[in-house]
Amino acid sequence: MKAEIIAVGSELLTPDRLDTNSLFLTEELNTIGIEVLRKTVVGDDRDLLAEAFRDALNRVPLIISCGGLGPTEDDLTRETVADLLGRKLRRNDEILRYIEGRFRSLGREMPEVNVRQAMVPEGAEILENSRGTAPGLWLEDGGRALVLLPGPPRELKPLFREQVLPRLERRASGVRMHSRELRVTGLGESHVEQRILPIYKRFPEVKTTILAAPGETQIHLRFWTEDGAHAKKILDEIVQGFEIALADRIFSQDGRALEEVVAEQLTLNNATIAAAESCTGGLLAQRLTSIAGSSSYFLGGVVCYSNELKTAWADVPAEMIAAKGAVSPEVAVALAEGIRRRVGSTLGVGITGIAGPGGGSDEKPVGTVHVAISHAGGIKERGARFPGDRESIRWQASQIALDLVRVHFLYNSQNAAISSAKRG
Amino acid sequence: MKAEIIAVGSELLTPDRLDTNSLFLTEELNTIGIEVLRKTVVGDDRDLLAEAFRDALNRVPLIISCGGLGPTEDDLTRETVADLLGRKLRRNDEILRYIEGRFRSLGREMPEVNVRQAMVPEGAEILENSRGTAPGLWLEDGGRALVLLPGPPRELKPLFREQVLPRLERRASGVRMHSRELRVTGLGESHVEQRILPIYKRFPEVKTTILAAPGETQIHLRFWTEDGAHAKKILDEIVQGFEIALADRIFSQDGRALEEVVAEQLTLNNATIAAAESCTGGLLAQRLTSIAGSSSYFLGGVVCYSNELKTAWADVPAEMIAAKGAVSPEVAVALAEGIRRRVGSTLGVGITGIAGPGGGSDEKPVGTVHVAISHAGGIKERGARFPGDRESIRWQASQIALDLVRVHFLYNSQNAAISSAKRG
What we know:
The structure is a homodimer. By secondary structure, chain A is an alpha/beta fold.
């Protein structure tokens, strides 16, 4: 089944407020196999509101609106929908008594305006709202359903879950959305597309979306079908194809961020980490410590912006900085080794680069970054030249650092598995 | 003038992504007197996309779309709009060369798919995109304008400001939105409301909105009028009232973030800063260094998660940690003083606390934070118990730290002004 969401309210057309109810509604609808075809935000204007409902009724069998059920003059959803369906509005005395009771329990008298909230289009079912005065309304018209919900999320959410979802479940077909999400780093959107296009093109029934995010690319697969076993088989097959095409560039298949993946690897391997950052200015430490329980693997880090502090805190030789420059593979490696020795951690990470907008040169333009990791078995260094602004360059540098750690554990544990297989 | 915004992309109809570009666009359009009548989100489907554009063209003289200009098969905005207006798509060799050049400057070859981004409907004006491969497009049709923008906010925003806004300004009417934004820290939404309600109630023609943001409260004032001088007079009067009611809790009147305000103070005062962070894990350093040119005032910082590193890197006496606990006013002060001495900066900041979800106790529950600053003239310490999750607690702790620095300079420079007035 297909649905549209209409968010009603002039405040949603200002720069202050975003319609966030639709995210919640989409998630809930998807789980029972209802796809959202369009979202519309429209102000408190009778003609525009009527047009939005009329158009949607011509397209889909289910419309969910939120907002415009308040007691004031600019709450027009009830009247507009009644007009549109050629129904009369009648006062519902049960609702009126409920609203009066709510006010009485707060020690107040019901203001006259709230009578509007007891007006109900003929033939509408009442959806009780235990958290507010405006009930939701369910209307049927020629096989189509219109569900009118109050706007405040704390009223809308329980009302939807308790009263709308069960009704929809009875109507919805057996079709469900089955989905996968893969996250990739170190390959841009178009390179990912080129590698996986031949695979996903063979499955036109699966909707594949490739999204560019800062420092990573996300691939979403969505398959709408009644047959869950078939969906699993097809999605598994596509993902296996992607795994071959993208190899170790896939870092997550469950929506986790790169720092979460690395946190789990560190924990599973009983490893600890320390960081010496220059251009990222603490971003790597902040990401590593954003995860609950990070004190078990993250021992500490230094942000050594000045050359003196690179020497004082991570033992980078002053002569090396003079000879190679602060932004160089050598200094990245020295930072990684220095901080690891100082802190006594399993892994050390060093980052140096030019985040801009100033500080670039012909030889080392803005965006030049060197990242290194150091461990008992050796070092690994990666250099890059990133496009984008300061924020983007810093983020991408932190992505490279996390990715070096990830790949280290990936092959380390593979090697461990191979050697234990040999021993076995 | 009235406008509609169409956000294109199937990912915006999933529970993963919300269209946030429309907030930015609405704000920018409002400032030049253009009102947004409707926002529509539609997926990557040619028919539905065509319908959305067709309907909007029937309603308003200006349509702004974002998204669907990427290089992949599901990027359909160019083709759909060209079809709808009966225009042919032609390859623009200048754009093609630009895209190839972008890839070349990153040392890569342009993937074949990117040729799509050089396809342009006949009669379209090209809006150069300095941050990405897809240019924006401006089309005119029977007195109506269609503006097609790329989806990524970091490309869309500068492109809109630099190239779309000046073109729209020439077309728009005399009514403008005149606005002010005040940012407040250390006072919650309802306390701000209580203090300023008597002031803004006297000006019903000005729309006042109070918004809660993490660690701060924002007040927006908006006044739609043709009379700029009158708007300025009224808004000045309201802001003066707010300044009396909120005193030094207002940190910004121009939309700047707290770290930007502090960065300017440090620069103006020729001061330097260093940080020793525990629970914020580098967040303070990261915020201080997020600003271009931060190397002139930020010397360095340490993230000392373990107690040993608090002693090794910031000279916090081990006995003090044992006696008072790592999360204590004493340790916050010792961190601030230790890092200032070590680094030789004008100011030192120390942060210690329990960000959770684990690690809390009855005496020191999750959310307990101590922050201190140290300078030649003395120390200042502030303790707090924040509600919220790990991310929110860490953010609020970094806000307090920045606010301590801000207030230090506020009264320091006032004192300097007073003493120079005495001398004068």
